[in-house]
């Protein structure tokens, strides 16, 4: 518990405050921190009896004459969780420094406990991050599910509670970008004792959120990030519990992160349920997709207004082939939408109400969009 860096920091700070040299020893009486740094590493013999008896002891100039590495002053036991972990010594005339003894003891113990708590928290966060990375990368042919479940329970996470894996991608305007501010922002806004957070790749952070809180938490985070000038894109995977389902959620979130900006370029939050069609079509071999697009859309692809016609067909289908709703989404008059649809039918030399044509055009338009 008494690391040398921590002990030295505490000794320096208290020495500066009280104006008397403070030294800290470990359980064996070796000095691990001192306002007089030349004493670090020396044996402080007076500490041996203090550790054994668990009592504060004062030592005059005559008392320390035969004690190795000891100056006149007061030596106080440091007790954490009822265990003596070392001592703190104050150099000076005993009658002058004794009044500081209890205060210095309590302050040192508080600082040590706080450092231990922070250290434990950091250790748990790192273990949680490693666990989440392994879940995201898990494969049926790989690691044991039971082992990951045990590790999760040890860290206080019940993986049988439904969660969604969320990926947060920092959108850097300067090329490379620094992941650390993104990790801190995600951990602060979305991380807690109930959530797992991990840096998966540069500028991509994963977090496992309880399923029932995901949408609202992500919306709040994006708003707060925007207010701080941090540009992010968020992808939400499917709900799942257990290692296998959470791994699927992570894979869905990755697909949403890739496909969402293509299908909905103006959105900041992309849910996998909004791009299921794109996800299914993305696994079709590229040459098969290319043949289908050219077979269905060749006359349209050659038209200079093809991007506008494609967005028209997609909006029409996304609105259940309702021309009024589709026109509202596109911010055009309904007659303009109907004109475009009639023009598409004419270019294809097919009837607009031909059975199955609208769906086929929608699918091939989505495939063409993916090809971008």
From TrEMBL:
Can you name this protein? CdaR family transcriptional regulator
Give the signal peptide as a residue range, or say none if absent. none
Question: Where in this chain does the record put each Putative sugar diacid recognition domain?
Answer: 4-133
Task: Using the record's annotation, list all stretches that form the CdaR GGDEF-like domain.
Answer: 144-259
Q: Which family does it belong to?
A: Belongs to the CdaR family.
Q: What organism is this sequence from?
A: Mycolicibacterium agri
Q: Could you name the domain of life of the organism this protein comes from? A: Bacteria
Query: Residues in domain PucR C-terminal helix-turn-helix?
Result: 309-365
- List the InterPro entries: CdaR-like_regulators (IPR051448), CdaR_GGDEF (IPR041522), Diacid_rec (IPR008599), GAF-like_dom_sf (IPR029016), Homeodomain-like_sf (IPR009057), PucR_C-HTH_dom (IPR025736), PucR_C-HTH_sf (IPR042070)
What Gene3D superfamilies does UniProt report for this protein, alphabetically?
3.30.450.40, PucR C-terminal helix-turn-helix domain
């Amino acid at each position: 518990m008494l690391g040398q860096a921590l002990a030295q920091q505490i000794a320096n700070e208290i020495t500066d405050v009280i104006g008397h040299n403070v030294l800290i020893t470990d359980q064996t009486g070796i000095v691990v921190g001192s306002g007089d740094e030349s004493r670090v590493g020396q044996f402080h013999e007076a500490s041996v009896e203090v550790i054994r008896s668990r009592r504060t002891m004062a030592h005059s100039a005559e008392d320390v004459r035969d004690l190795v590495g000891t100056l006149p002053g007061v030596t106080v036991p440091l007790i954490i969780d009822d265990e003596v972990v070392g001592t703190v010594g104050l150099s000076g005339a005993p009658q002058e420094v004794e009044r500081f003894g209890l205060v210095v003891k309590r302050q040192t113990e508080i600082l040590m406990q706080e450092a231990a708590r922070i250290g434990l928290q950091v250790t748990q966060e790192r273990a949680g991050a490693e666990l989440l990375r392994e879940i995201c990368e898990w494969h049926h042919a790989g690691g044991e599910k039971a082992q990951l479940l045990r590790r999760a329970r040890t860290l206080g996470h019940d993986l049988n509670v439904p969660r969604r894996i969320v990926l947060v991608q920092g959108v850097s305007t300067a090329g490379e970008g620094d992941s650390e501010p993104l990790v801190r922002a995600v951990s602060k806004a979305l991380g807690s004792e109930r959530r797992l957070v991990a840096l998966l790749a540069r500028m991509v952070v994963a977090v496992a959120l309880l399923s029932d809180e995901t949408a609202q938490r992500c919306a709040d985070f994006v708003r707060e990030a925007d207010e701080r000038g941090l540009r992010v894109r968020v992808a939400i995977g499917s709900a799942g519990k257990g290692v296998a389902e959470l791994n699927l959620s992570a894979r869905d979130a990755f697909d949403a992160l890739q496909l969402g900006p293509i299908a909905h370029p103006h959105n900041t939050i992309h849910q996998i349920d909004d791009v299921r069609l794109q996800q299914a079509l993305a696994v079709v071999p590229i040459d098969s997709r290319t043949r289908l697009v050219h077979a269905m859309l060749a006359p349209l692809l050659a038209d200079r207004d093809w991007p506008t016609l494609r967005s028209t067909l997609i909006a029409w289908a996304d609105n259940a082939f309702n021309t009024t709703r589709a026109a509202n989404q596109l911010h055009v008059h309904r007659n303009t939408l109907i004109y475009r649809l009639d023009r598409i039918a004419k270019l294809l030399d097919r009837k607009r109400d031909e059975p199955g044509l609208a769906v086929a055009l929608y699918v091939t338009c989505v495939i063409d969009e993916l090809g971008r």
